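dumping this here before i forget
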Amino acid sequence: MEIIYLLIPLSLIVVGLIIGAFVWAVKSGQFDDLEGPAHQILMDDDDPVIEPPGEPDSGDKGDKGDKGDKRE
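structure:
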């Protein structure tokens, strides 16, 4: 019977921590988009980026010649 004096306050502390974690999750936006991650995993984002012809790629900036990476 004496164990009840320990278990009741301990269970109230655990319940308080669980409620605090739930409130934190709601305020930080964890439950804002429940369907997005389920659809995102089905989307194929491994397609290579194809640039239109005639435009330099993002690293080139239109420079001619090889000024970078000089290996012998």
